[in-house]
Amino acid sequence: MLTILFDGIAYGMLLFVLACGLSVTLGLMNLVNLAHGAFAMAGGYVLVILVNNLGVPFWVSIICAFFVSAAIGFVMEKAFYVHVYRKPHLDQVLFTIGLVFMSVAAADFAMGSSQVFARIPQALQGQIHVFGIGMGRYRLLIIAICGALALGLQYVLVYTRFGSRLRAAVDDQRVARGLGINVGNIFALTFAFGSGLAGLGGALGTEILGLDPTFPLKYMIYFLIVVTVGGTSSITGPFLASLLLGIADVAGKYYVPKLGAFVIYTIMIVVLIWRPQGLFARAANK
Amino acid sequence: MTEPTPTAKLAAQGILARARWHPLEFVFWIAAFSAIWLLPNKHLILTEIAWLALFALSLDLILGYAGILSLGHAAFFGVGSYAAALLAKHGIITEPVLALVAAGLIAAVVGFATSFLMLRGADLTRLMVSLGVALVLRELANKFSDLTGGADGLQGVTMEPILGRFRFDMFGHNGFAYCLIVLFVLFLAARRLMASPFGLALLSVKGNPLRARAIGINVDARLVTIYTIAAFYAGVAGGLLAQTTAFSSLDVFSFDRSADLLLVLIIGGTGYLYGGLIGAVIFKVMQDYLAVLTPQYWPFWIGLVLVVLVMVGRDRMLRWTEPVRTLANRLDWRAKGQGQAS
Amino acid sequence: MTVALETTNLVKQFGGLTATDNVSIQFEAGARHALIGPNGAGKTTLINLLTGMLKPTSGRIILNGVDITDASPQRRVRLGMVRTFQINQLFPDLTPLETVGLAISERRGDGADFWRVAGTKPGLNQEIADILDRFRLADVMNAKTSILPYGKQRLLEIAVAIACKPKVLLLDEPAAGVPDEERHEILSSIAALPKDVTVVLIEHDMDIVFAFSERISVLVNGGVFTEGPAAEVARDPRVKAVYLGESLDA
Ligand SMILES: Nc1ncnc2c1ncn2[C@@H]1O[C@H](COP(=O)(O)OP(=O)(O)OP(=O)(O)O)[C@@H](O)[C@H]1O
Ligand SMILES: [Mg+2]
Q1: pLDDT tens digits, one per residue of A44-100
Q2: What pLDDT, in 10s, does the model give residues A161-187?
Q3: CATH number where A91 lies
Q4: Which H helix or E strand runs over B115?
C-alpha cells in the first residue's frame, strides 16, 4: 500500500519534470505544444546512446540529456516556434502534431521500433527498506532530483530577475519591450529550458515509462492532463496535478487493472468541465 | 403588393449567393460519378476516399463552420463503425442502408450527449475534452471485449446486400457506388444546411460569438445542433467503413485517425464544404504513393506536410482553392441559380 | 411615465476594482437618455451588465417589469433590449447583406430554420434593403465585412442593432472615430428612431449629447454622480469639473 503511494509519488514527480516546461510555454506564451513529448524522447535516447553504446557514466549522460534537449528546443524555437506563437490555435495544433509524427518516424528510423532501456548503475538498483516500506533506490533518486528541481523552479520564477522578466514579458509583451526586455530571447531561453527539463525527465524516466518511438504520442495526453488540470497560473498547480495523476495512475493500475486508463480520462473530463481554468488555479482576478 | 426597390432586388440575388451552384461543382460531381464506370479497378481505394471524404466533411461542419477545434472526432466515427458492424453481426438490422442510418443516429446521440462538454472553455479545453471522449470510448470498446472483440477487432461480420439487391463484391464495385451516393446525398444536405439562416448563424458564431449573442442568437443551442449533426455524419462515415470491410477494430477510435483527419481537411481547406472531399482525394493518393515507397515512415510525410503547411501559411498554400471558392460563392449565375436554389 | 429599464443597487467588482458601484438607475419608456462620464467611469461595464455579457456581483435588473438579472443575453434581446459596441463587433466572414439578414431572421424567429435557403422568406429582402439603404451600405452589401473601410463597418455596427427592432436600444459611443459624413448618417438614423423606443446613448462629444438627450446621468468611478434633465446637468459646475479634471489628466 505505502509502496504504491511511494511509486505513485515517484511517477508523479517525474511527470512534473516532464510537463512543467509545457506548463510554462502554454500558460505564459499561450502556445499549444503537442510536441513536448518529442523533446523528452530526445533526452531518453541521448541517455541510452551515451550509456549503452558509448559507455559514458550515467550521471554525465543525464546531464547531457538535459543540454541536448535544451539545445534542440532552443534551435526549434528560434527556427520554427517563434512563427507560430501568434497563429491561431488550429495552426499550433497542426504544426505540433506534424512535429510529433515526424519525430516518431525519425526515431523509428534511427533507433528501431522496439523498446530500449538504459543500463543503470549497480548502486541505483534494488530496494531499501525504511520503516518496513520497500522503496526502489532509483525511484528515491527520482524523487530527490525532481523535488529539488521543483523547488529550484519555484525559486527562479518567483525570486530571480529572470523570473520577473519572464512574468513581465508575458503579462504585456509590448510594455516589456518598452522596458528594454528582450522578449524574444526570454521566450527562447524559457522554451529551451522547458525542453531541457523534458529531456531530463525523459532520460530519468526510461526505466519507469519505457522508451520507444511512440513515446511522444503515448504520453502527450498525460502531459496535457497535468497542465490543464493543474492550471497554468503557477507551477504549484501542475506539481500537485502531477502527483495526483501519478498516484492515481499507479494505484489504478494496481487495484483496478481492468478499468485501464478509463478512470483517468473520465476524471480529466470532469475536472475540465467543472473548472476549465484547472483544479488548482486561483480564481481569475484581472 | 408593392414593387420591390432596386436594392431589394439586388439583395434578393446576393443573399442566394451561398446557395447558388457553380459550374465547377457539376464538373466535380460528374467526374466523381463517372469514376464508377471509368476506374473500375480503382474502386477499393475510391471507396476509402469516399468515406474519408464524408468523415472530413463532418469535421468541416464543426471546424470550418462553427470554429470548434476537435482532436477526437474519431469518437463518432468509431461509434458508427461499431454500431454498423454489431447491427449486422447480431442480425438486428440487416439491410445496410437502414443500418447505416441507425449507426449515424447512434453516433448522433453520443454527439449530442458530449456536445455539452464542448460548450465550455477555450480551444485547449475543447481539444482535451474531445480527445478525452475518444480515449474513453476506446477504453470502453476495449473493456467490453465480449461485445466488441477487444483488441482483435470485431470479426465474423457478414453484410447483406444493399436494399436486398446489391452485394458487397470483393472488387468494391457496389461498395464504391454505395459510398459515393451516400456521400453525395449527405453533401447536398450539408450544402443546403449551410445556405440556410442556421448556416449563417453558425458562421456568425464562429466569427464573433459575442456579437452573435447580442443579436439574439442562442449560441449554445446552435453549437449543440451542429455538433450532433456532425457526429451523425461521422457515424455514417464509420458505418460505411465497417460495411465495406465487414470489420471493425479499436483503431477506429485512434488519435492518429483524428489527427490524419485534420490534415485531410486542412489540405483541402476549411469552410467551403469541398475541402474535405478534395483533401481526401489528395491524402489517399499521397498515401498510396508514399506508403509504397516507405510504408513504415508514412507518418513522417504526414508530419512534414503539416509542418510545411503551417510554416508557409495555410492561406498562402491554399490560394489555389481561392478562385474556386470565390467563384462558387459569388459568381453571378442568375438564371439557373435562382431555379436551383429554391 | 412607465419605466422601461431599471437597475437596483447594481454592483460589479473585478477583483479589487469596483467598476459599477451600487447603481440604481431608471430609463423611462421612450426616453432619450445620455450616459456620460470620464474614461473608465464604468459606462461600458454598465451596458455589459444590462445586456448580460457580464454577471453582476449583486443587484437586480428589471426590463419592462421582468426581472432579467439571470436571463441569458439572447433572451434579453428577444425581450427587446439590443446594444451596439464601443469597439466594432462584426462577423468578418459574412457580408453586410448577410449580417443584416441574419439579425432580421433571428428577430422573426427563423434563425434556427435549417432547411429553407436564407433569403427566400417573403418580405425579408425588402426589409434588409431598407436598412442597407438607410445606412448607405447598399453599394457594399456583397463585400466581406472584414475588408470594409472603418466608416462602413461602423455604420454596419449600428445597422445590425437597428435591424433587431429594439424596444430599448443601448448605444456605446456610436459615432466615435467615424468620418463626418458617416457620423451624420448615424446620428440622423438615431434621431429617426420611433418615439416609443427607449434610447440610451453613451457619448463623449457634448454637442451630440445635448442635441440628443432629454435626460443625462453622469457616472464617475462606477457610481451615479448626478442625474437630471439635460439643461440642468449642463449647468452643473461639478460635472464640468469632473470632465475638466479628466481632460487635464489626459
Ligand atoms: N473585463 C474586465 N476585467 C477587469 N477590469 C475591467 C473589465 N472591464 C472593464 N474593466 C475596468 O473597469 C473600469 C470601467 O471600465 P469601462 O470600460 O466600463 O469604462 P468606460 O466608462 O466605458 O470608459 P470609456 O469611456 O473609456 O469607454 C475600468 O477601470 C476598466 O479597466
Ligand atoms: Mg466604454
Answers
A1: 999 999 988 888 888 889 999 999 999 999 999 999 998 898 888 899 999 999 999
A2: 877 777 777 677 777 777 777 778 888
A3: 1.10.3470
A4: helix B96-115
CB contact burial A31-48 (16+ within 10 A = b; e otherwise): bbbbbbbbbbbbbbbbbb
Helices marked H in B269-321 — which ranges?
A: 274-293, 298-312, 314-317
Instruction: Kindly tell me if the per-residue pLDDT of A216 is higher than 80.
Output: yes
Residue A62's domain comprises: 2-118+134-285
Give the Cβ contact number of residue A256 at 10 Å. Answer: 11
Q: Can you tell me the ipTM of this complex?
A: 0.90
* Ligand 1, residues at Cβ distance < 6 Å: A 286; C 14, 17, 19, 37, 39-45, 86
* B168-207 CB burial, b ≥16 within 10 A, e <16: beeebbbbbbbbbebbeebbeebbbbbbbbbbbbbbbbbb
User: B185 alpha carbon to ligand 1 midpoint, in Å?
Assistant: 51
Give the nearest ligand 1 atom to C54 CA. 1
Residues 15-34 of A with CB under 8 A from C: none
Residue B331 in this model has a pLDDT that exceeds 70 = no
Supply φ then ψ for residue A86, to 5 degrees: -90, -5
Is A129 domain-assigned? no
Domain annotation covers residue A128: no
Ligand 1 atom with minimal separation from the A286 CA = 4
Q: How confident is the model at residue B228, as a pLDDT?
A: 97
Q: Do B125 and A228 form a contact (C-beta atoms < 8 A)?
A: yes
- Report the domain count for chain A: 1
Q: Specify the pTM.
A: 0.89
Query: What count of other Cβ atoms lies within 10 Å of the Cβ of residue C46?
Result: 29
Highest-pLDDT range among A4-8, B9-13, C82-86: C82-86
Report, as an integer, the average pLDDT of A4-16: 88
Average pLDDT over residues A26-33: 81
As a whole number of angstroms, the distance between CA A173 and CA A181 comes to: 9
- Write out chain C residues lying below 8 Å of A285, CB-based: 14-16
pLDDT tens, position by position, C102-128: 999 888 877 666 666 666 667 788 889
For residues C82, C85, C86, C91, the Cα torsion angle rounded to the nearest 10 degrees is -160
